[in-house]
Specification:
The protein is mainly α. The chain contains 14 helices and six strands. Helix 7 crosses helix 10. About 12% of the residues have low confidence.
Amino acid sequence: MRPSAVQRLTVAETADRYAEMVRAKTSTGALTPRTAEVYVRDVLTFADLAGGERVLDDLTGQDVDAVLLAFARKPDARRRAGAAGAQAAGAQVVGAGGVRVQAGRSGQAGPAQSAASQARFRRSVSAFFKYAAVVGWVQLDPMRAVTVRPVQRGGLRAERRALTAEQAEGLLGAAQGLAEASPAAGAGSGRRRSDQRTELRDGLVVLLLAAVGPRVSELTAANVEDFFVNGGTRYWRIFGKGGRTRDVPLPRPVAEVLDAYLADGRALLDRGREPKALLLSWRGRRLARGDVQGVIDRVLARVEPGRRRSVTPHGLRHTTATHLLAAATDMDAVRRVLGHADLSTLGQYRDELPGELEAAMRVHPLLGPLEGRRGG
């Protein structure tokens, strides 16, 4: 039941209380610490953009619209400033009356928030106001009057997320070549520059992302002890959402690069600060989530221009799912590789590939006998 009296609390006060409640849910297992911190970060960002000194109950749908638009234009510090071009230009939102508002601005420090980030932020704000209505911080949920929404979701993407087979092969080939060209630890490792000590690690990062399709948080949280051999096969024990774990076998080329990295490459970066972490920065710290895009971009720079297309870590997760499914891999096996709770989620990760319908009809299972009869 809703309290009889509304508490006249400021936006900052309610955001802090909500953040405490969300973090408390991690102790019961209702939320993972990473998920909780995303919600907390979003609501604190909302408080900053809305004005922490304002009374929460005074905010209207128009005020929340303004915050959502401000967030859409907010530079995304996780991406390189040089990537602002096409991606920032494609991030638009729709306001009242169907008017499209460009999220990017010329001269800003970096690309604007992606459509996925805008949608996530909107969901976080909506959950915050639902809670506020229940505990008596607002009389009416202003989200009911909000008109701003992302236009690039699901089928409205401006560009396919999954790489084509040719593009993926170019990226994987560059990663493999980078790993093979990386010097061994004994070859004057102490005299090598910091940017030269990360080559083997960069190749491994791209191979793991493209072959296994982990979430970027799962990749950066991986520890050396999470990789083991069973029956001659290398496995990665991935700790995923909701405390679920999955053991994923690594393809042989990926396992070979992993073994080389553990034998030589990691020693070039290890300074004893992160004894468990698999992936280390050149400073010897656990690789941060925001650093992974830079790793992908460095490997992409080695791909020949005709097969090069920019891609995010999540885009590589889409690439893994799309090509496994296109190769008629069992859907439940793909679900287990990606760590989804049910099969229905796979539909969000299956992107169209050029020529796939034509290829499917050429090998139609019902027409095989007719083709054989014609040939006879």
